[in-house]
Write a structure and sequence with these properties.
Blueprint (H helix, E strand, L loop, with lengths): L5 E2 L10 E5 L16 H18 L3 H8 L1 E2 L2 E8 L9 E10 L3 E10 L2 E11 L1 E2 L4 E2 L4 H7 L9
Antiparallel strand pairs: 1-2, 2-5, 3-8, 4-7, 5-6, 6-7, 8-9
């Protein structure tokens, strides 16, 4: 995830939430001239991957390749509030909402031009990547992540 369309801008330094800005392009749109529905979860996952890189120091690629640690999704829930277009940057705010024994939860809110476009809830399970076996959250990741734990947004 992450490409030239993404911005590393973090308007959330020092706060529990993390903001990832995405440039929505023409190629992201359907014939209705709004972002294709399937792109919306992609944008949210891109923001979560950026959260991992910014907050933990490892994106999903390096977690899998360098640490043999995967975080496949066990749950994905999204509510669409307003259409997304290429007219303004999409600001995806990522909140860490849960740290279980083997799972981690996120909420992502997508805003454009001050308007709420989508809300999502996501749960990932930690696994040993090459065996796909559930494992506990590593202590170093837990220690880094805990200060960013917040209540789910309303």
């Amino acid at each position: 995830m992450g490409d030239a369309r993404s911005s590393g801008n973090d308007a959330s330094a020092g706060t529990a939430s993390f903001v990832h800005r995405i440039r929505v392009g023409w190629a992201d749109c359907d014939p209705a001239r709004i972002a294709y529905t399937g792109r919306i979860p992609y944008f949210a996952l891109e923001a979560i991957d950026a959260w991992w890189q910014h907050r933990i120091g490892n994106d999903w690629f390096s977690l899998n390749i360098d640490r043999n640690l995967g975080t496949p999704f066990a749950r994905l829930e999204m509510d669409f509030r307003f259409h997304v277009t290429p007219r303004a940057p999409l600001e995806c705010t990522v909140h860490l909402t849960r740290l279980g024994e083997t799972s981690i939860g996120f909420a992502v809110d997508g805003h454009q031009a001050g308007r709420l476009c989508f809300q999502g809830k996501f749960v990932c399970v930690f696994v040993v990547a090459d065996r796909h076996e559930k494992t506990a959250i590593p202590a170093d990741i837990r220690a880094i992540a805990e200060p960013f734990l917040s209540a789910p947004p309303a």
